[in-house]
Amino acid sequence: MMRIGQGWDRHRLEAGRPCLLGGVRFDESPVGCVGHSDGDAVCHAVIDALLGAAGLGDIGDHFPDTDPKYKGANSLDLLAQAWKRVSDTGFRLCNVDLTVIAEAPMIGPRRGQMRASLAETLGVDPARVSVKATRGEGLGPEGRGECLTVQAVALLEI
Ligand code: MG
Known about the structure:
Elements: E1 2-15, E2 20-21, E3 24-25, E4 31-33, H1 41-54, H2 59-62, H3 75-87, E5 92-101, H4 111-122, E6 129-134, H5 140-143, E7 147-157
Parallel strand pairs: 5-6
Antiparallel strand pairs: 1-4, 1-7, 2-3, 5-7
Helix pairs in contact: 1-3
Residues 9, 11, 35, 41, 44 line the site of magnesium ion.
């Protein structure tokens, strides 16, 4: 049986914040994501796609942002924990595909690192993890540089 899931996350961008996406640090970025955890919206969207495919709820059920334990949490660790909960039920990962929508940072030069980081955390070949990016063309909150949005889909097989 195949199961598909989708995830979506948006974080406000602020100047001078560390920028982490897919567990990769963008030290060159002038802006970073605001969040209760480390603000890694890529990991958060992938977590929701995986949990959704498995029918296991969402990131807020598993890692509530009201819990002080998750303040400043490493989202790659949260992804590893979420994937363990999903894979423990017998699912295997076919592929993940995600799109980052933001004016900054530039994803292209870091795409390979992001794929490797996510794939290592999920225990799969990087060929199973796709990272794409687009810009807001001056429209909406992404286009104005106010936020970064991530859409992800995951396909599981059992
Ligand atoms: Mg988030």
